[in-house]
Amino acid sequence: xxxxxxxxxxxxxxxxxxxxxxxxxxxxxxxxxxxxxxxxxxxxxxxxxxxxxxxxxxxxxxxxxxxxxxxxxxxxxxxxxxxxxxxxxxxxxxxxxxxxxxxxxxxxxxxxxxxxxxxxxxxxxxxxxxxxxxxxxxxxxxxxxxxxxxxxxxxxxxxxxxxxxxxxxxxxxxxxxxxxxxxxxxxxxxxxxxxxxxxxxxxxxxxxxxxxxxxxxxxxxxxxxxxxxxxxxxxxxxxxxxxxxxxxxxxxxxxxxxxxxxxxxxxxxxxxxxxxxxxxxxxxxxxxxxxxxxxxxxxxxxxxxxxxxxxxxxxxxxxxxxxxxxxxxxxxxxxxxxxxxxxxxxxxxxxxxxxxxxxxxxxxxxxxxxxxxxxxxxxxxxxxxxxxxxxxxxxxxxxxxxxxxxxxxxxx
Length: 412
Prior knowledge:
The chain has 412 residues and is an alpha/beta fold. The chain has one domain (1-412): Alpha/Beta hydrolase fold, catalytic domain (Rossmann fold, 3-Layer(aba) Sandwich). It is 31% helix and 14% strand. It has helices at 28-34, 52-55, 173-187, 201-212, 231-245, 260-274, 277-281, 295-304, 312-323, 336-341, 360-367, 392-411; strands at residues 2-4, 20-22, 74-84, 90-101, 111-115, 141-145, 195-199, 220-223, 347-350, 373-376. It has a 10-stranded mixed beta sheet, sandwiched between helices. The longest helix has 20 residues, at 392-411. The two termini are 22 Å apart.
């Protein structure tokens, strides 16, 4: 593994070799200031919010430097009859909701898949899409798929008995990848993807695509997400499930009204992991009034309005999908290392330096087994959301690296 050090080092274009690791400084705060964003400047910096329904919380990052994607995705649905999940359950009808930007070209070689993250829908990648960003819908055909369980694709909340509510089967990341592969090939007639680009649970899907369909794309990009959920992440998710289900109103998932106290307890546990400890110590929430005017207001907004309108059973299903993920369980592999070694395509792996959900140490461990991997660590104090462009510096870092990566694989 080739490691680049030095406080004066600058981000380089990804070079596709046996795991290249790009590091700029030993301190995330110094790295951020190198990129033109001083995290201690407080209200002088305009912070770009990821739409809450797309990334976990109800306020929005408003990016003053670049507007949201001009183009709106066109919504579609794909229905699969008698869809058999990994658990063995057969859903009489499985529905995938997805959006498209742009058009598939005559050669059929400009399609990019952007799979959704936790409780997100098809608008979840505005930080990458549009003028001046890495993905131009005037040139590319972008497909933004929605996970089972988000309340729009087939979910506990919208599926009739005998699979309504808590009786809906646990759907794996592989289940989602299989369903979307069918959608792409059968409905959109996409025979090959230029790339799969995913944030968080979308990154989990990107790794699964590279293992399950190793020749179907030219490359993958994974931000703030890993190829397997390790023990610490499972414990966190189980703690959040326990907080939610402790509300008596939950009633084993057969509630008549949403278990509000349980959802608020879940929200507070989740919030504690969302950003880095340094983000809280430096009170970076002061960078945008949408968070709240003081600490108590910030905490109350996260507690009461974390994922507006979310259904408790849907929240739990997505946590189960997240925690069960392991590319190493893909037949015929026996462990994550073997599965990662099988990946044929170039991988741009971008963990956040301060992510508490998917620690950078997990990413370093996995990257060592991927044959053609560039590990570009996002130098940010914004924790997990850094992988979705939470600050202007994060957005700049991500867009530059994704654009360079796509240009590189286009030449090969």
